[in-house]
Amino acid sequence: MADAAGARSAVVAAEVSKTFRVPQEQVHTLKERVLHPLRSSAYHEFRALQDVSLAVPKGEFFGIVGRNGSGKSTLLKCLAGIYRTDAGAIWVDGRVSTFIELGVGFNLDLAARDNITINAAMLGLSRREARRRFDTIIDFAELRDFTELKLKNYSSGMLVRLAFAVMIQVDADILLIDEVLAVGDAAFQQKCFDEFEAIKAAGRTVLLVTHDMNAVKRFCDRAMLLEHGTVVATGDPESIGNRYLDLNFSAEARAEATALEHASSAPVQALDTLFGDGRAVIEDAWMEDAQGNRAAVLKNGEPAAFTMRVRFSAEVREPRFTVQLQNGARIPLFTASSGWGAAAPSGTFHAGEEAVWRAGFDNVLGPDRYSVTPSVTLENGIVVAMRDRMFSVVVTRADQHAGALVDIPFDARLERLPASEPTGEGAAR
């Protein structure tokens, strides 16, 4: 099918809608069935998609973004033929390979070797071709030592690596990928990035659902923003990514700011992971905005600060107070420590003593959500106290944002040079 410009489309959706019936009250026992015979018929309808249209030309890398519950995964499942649409039409021109839901297409009671053969065959390869590509698949997934292990004993990261490796080896014309970057370590994510570059160079069609706006801006030719099952906008990745950040963080930021105001000076609720040898406890930690107020939202380009309060239960000599901010991919983008530079020695703290450490900085972080990890360590690396990802903070974008992970201030100057006088043979003429 061709779009309005005459280009051949690989994927087209025309006014697609999808509704789910969600039970309000469920009957779980025979007693409930007798006492409440009509309860099982109580449903409400949830409109996951409403009149969604798109046209993706062959060879395009197309991003689909939106907040949780916006309909991204539902749309991808409709395009893959997993869900039937209630209204509208879908055309797909080419062989499709999907990475939509962790474990889908795998038999968890079989080993990796059998699953690779079966899954590759389901995606269009012959049994002989699947076996021929087995080594390539298993090596890409880095699972050579686990080929005979049943998949039910695999971690989620191992399943992701295996599923992604199978998907890219079946030579499909169209790849439908849902949140492949959400699970897996940094090394695997980099392998995904490298493979995305190769896929783009090969001219294959990709529809990518993700929350990673940096990936959208890096790989996608166009992107679409969904909200409550409807299309908000379709356009260039930069503008769509910025609209997503504004939509997502403005709503969440207001909720977090309201919660923080109601909490007053109470300690931050810690849904975090604790480490350390027990000689100290990080009792409280928070971020401060340019006005010195506790803040769950910081603005790019303005001064900010981190503060933590530590109580010691035993003697600790020369502790180092540190804070680290990481983005969603667990990439450290800011670290400050009392043990760096010309900072004075911290001294010795005894049982019952408390310390408050504050680190101010110019906020050059790009718009995103960042996890905050405070820690108290010794010079030899021993961890006295740490609260891994103790809380998160949102950075909203300034009026002008370069779209990078960080916006480093710079001073630039343009100088106009006078035209040079012609010399030599040219001057004689």
Automatic annotation (TrEMBL):
SUPFAM superfamilies, A to Z: P-loop containing nucleoside triphosphate hydrolases
The keyword ATP-binding belongs to this UniProt entry's keyword annotation: yes
Keywords, sorted A to Z: ATP-binding, Nucleotide-binding, Transport
Statement: the UniProt record of this protein carries the keyword Transmembrane: no
GO CC list: membrane
GO MF, one annotated term: ATP binding
Domain ABC transporter: 30-253
SMART domains xrefs: AAA
InterPro entries: AAA+_ATPase, ABC_transporter-like_ATP-bd, ABC_transporter-like_CS, ABC_transpr_TagH-like, Bact_Polysacc_Export_ATP-bd, P-loop_NTPase, Wzt_C
Assigned protein family: Belongs to the ABC transporter superfamily.
Name of the protein this chain belongs to: Unannotated protein
